[in-house]
Amino acid sequence: MITNTKDGWKADFRVGGANGKRYRKTCTTKAEAERYQKYVEGQFTTTGKAWTEKPKDTRRMSELLEPWFLLHGQHLKDGERRLSKLRLIIDKLSNPIASQLTPIAFSRYRATRTKEGIKPKTLNNELGYLTSLYNSLRKAGEIDYPNPLSEIDNIKVPENELSYLTNEQIIELMDSIGECDNPHVELITLICLCTGARWGEAEGLTEQRVHHGRVTFTDTKNGKNRTIPIPQWLFDRLKDHAKTTTGNNLFTSSIGAFRRALRRTNIELPAGQAAHVLRHSFASHFMMNGGNILTLQRALGHSDIRMTMRYSHLAPDHLQDAVTLNPIEGSGITGIKKAA
Q: Is there a catalytic annotation at residue 221?
């Protein structure tokens, strides 16, 4: 029986006869109550057994971290760091029951964080971490409810102009690096400038990964190895350097020496750039010198071409067709005064 009550539409019925199990549930709409009754009766017809509703998942978000790490997190390159970030986010959310987190609760949390001065990129990362938590656990069957944040959008972040070093700045930087006592920082810098490698990728090279005029980067950000040709002079220098090192690695940690050398120059960079400007410089000069955007994508190891397209405007012929294919020049329209 389905009746309309002050609290909503109430389904109250038995399955399997007068002495069968009794089911009661109050729903928002009559249709929802009818679907519930039909589903329960269908389950009994199919199995011959009374249907038992699964208990609600009342675990708090912190209780999902262990199964998340076991099933998914430990396989991520930054799994331990991600776990630490999730603990902090969940603590700031006051550790709610995971199935009861709502979009409005998260939006209010994000608004509070914005007032605290947290940058949009950081907030977008937090949303991404939580979304991955819910989605991976649902795929693994650990939870049976959907991601409650699936409809939340990232905050739009203005695209910043990417800084790169001019030829003069590169010379200034290399002169400053020449004053370093560290024997590795110069070669690591040259590798980054010649290949677009991230500092950690270049710093992690071994002798075995320098071969046939190429270097091979492993343990990359996207997990895919990539091999890049290098100039013969750099290949020869790396091989000579390998003779002076002990162990498998060509270099020791040198980022501190690089930063000190950078501070000795007059080069001013946006906050947080430092060694990453070398990668931007490779990509920018590659395009300015007439390079192909698809080749650049492979060299940088971008899985999404949109990341590489940030450099496309530096190509010598970027949007040059606009000069000849606009409606005035391209369509033969006459009667337009073009000279002063």
A: yes
